[in-house]
């Protein structure tokens, strides 16, 4: 039973609000709120039932022995063995949330069994033992299976506990084959109660064993989800799950950080009591990311020194020679006539991203260094500080949140110069061209790849919509599920097992 429940809990662990309103009260640092709605749970329940059936069958039931004394016959010994549940048909099922936990109920279920039977008796009339054997098919109807799971947080991971588990059989019919089965049918029917009890006990034990294994797997899941070789998502759970009658809520840290080098990103723990809502409550799930998540990505890449590059090609290549600057910076051309140039752009601090209801803005602080190429040496001659104000748009690209940026305006000032004072108003059009033709396309090429949303393998966002609310970006969506060899749970867990929590 563990694999299908894992699908439910893992998805719940990485998906968020879909209901009209959900209020999160953070007691710790949490920047991703998590809720999965009743509709999403119903979708997962269907997957759960299918996976549960495939994980339970075939299920062996212990053999049953019975002895009795029959008037005029004597001692009778009967055994049914090799009892195997080979088919389960679930009539109806539902999942219910409440203060006690997550209840999963399957009713009107039919189980098909096969078994072998053996019968012997001896009589006082003659010291002769009579025996026979054969096979039988058993149909168990009206089976009800239910379990209630408790969820908590233990050292940053989900803690699963089994609060209640049971199985009840209403009706059994046995059909014998082989031997003089017609003669023994009535006596074999005496096993109905014991077979029903054995089926109940076997299914219950299977469920309990599965929950214990599942809890061990949950405890072993990594608290770091890699974005690339150097960056990972902090998937540590904080605060206890919140269960209502129509949703289940979680919180995770959700920030990105460097694996090898601590980030210098600073944030303020904001008031997380603001309501988070999808405009369409019929969506299965939503994913809400605080602006701190995006700022953590920016800070991490800044610390890794990824946000710097050398410009040696621009649309007007003449501006990469001092001759192209002879009227803009005459002293540059005079000191280095007809020398090739590079423009070295690097961010001086991490970009600052602000998310409001109608806009996603960014302030980018950068230094543009003018380099002159003199034979085999690179000579920095001046540095211009830039403050770029940009606005961004986001879109869904598969299971990634991608985006693009446009520059609204920028300001510039001379930081230092080895060639005297510069007339900034003359340089500004050239810098604007560099920003628009080099800087923006470069940034958008990376934003277009996006960051992966925390979706379990095999699930795909469908009919998603994006909303900005307060300081958050929300993805509200339905999901589809397409199992394959690369998307099964074992493959997913194996792919995660190589990443361990930093200690």
Descriptive report:
Helix content is 24%, strand content 44%. With 503 residues, it is α+β, with helices and mostly antiparallel strands. Strands 2, 3, 4, 5, 6, 7, 8 and 9 form an eight-stranded antiparallel sheet that branches. Strands 16, 17, 18, 19, 20, 21 and 22 form a seven-stranded antiparallel sheet that branches. A hairpin with a 3-residue loop joins β3 and β4. The longest helix has 29 residues, at 192-220. It is rod-shaped. The relative contact order is 0.13.
Topology of helices and strands:
Elements: H1 2-14, E1 32-37, H2 38-56, E2 59-61, E3 64-70, E4 74-89, E5 92-98, E6 101-122, E7 129-154, E8 157-168, E9 171-177, H3 181-188, H4 192-220, E10 224-226, E11 231-234, E12 242-243, E13 247-252, E14 256-258, E15 285-290, H5 291-303, E16 308-311, H6 330-335, E17 341-347, E18 352-355, E19 360-374, E20 377-397, E21 400-417, H7 424-447, E22 451-452, E23 459-469, E24 472-481, H8 489-497
Antiparallel strand pairs: 1-13, 1-15, 2-4, 3-4, 4-6, 5-6, 6-7, 7-8, 7-9, 10-11, 11-14, 12-13, 15-24, 16-17, 17-19, 18-19, 19-20, 20-21, 21-22, 23-24
Helix pairs in contact: 1-2, 1-4
Main sheet specs: 8 strands, antiparallel
Name the assembly state: single chain
The termini sit apart by 32 Å
The structure class reads alpha+beta
Low-confidence stretches: 1-27, 271-275, 485-503
Share of β-strand residues: 35-45%
Q: Report the principal-axis shape.
A: rod-shaped
Radius of gyration from the alpha-carbon trace, in angstroms: 34 Å
User: What integer is the average pLDDT?
Assistant: 77
Tally of individual helices = 8
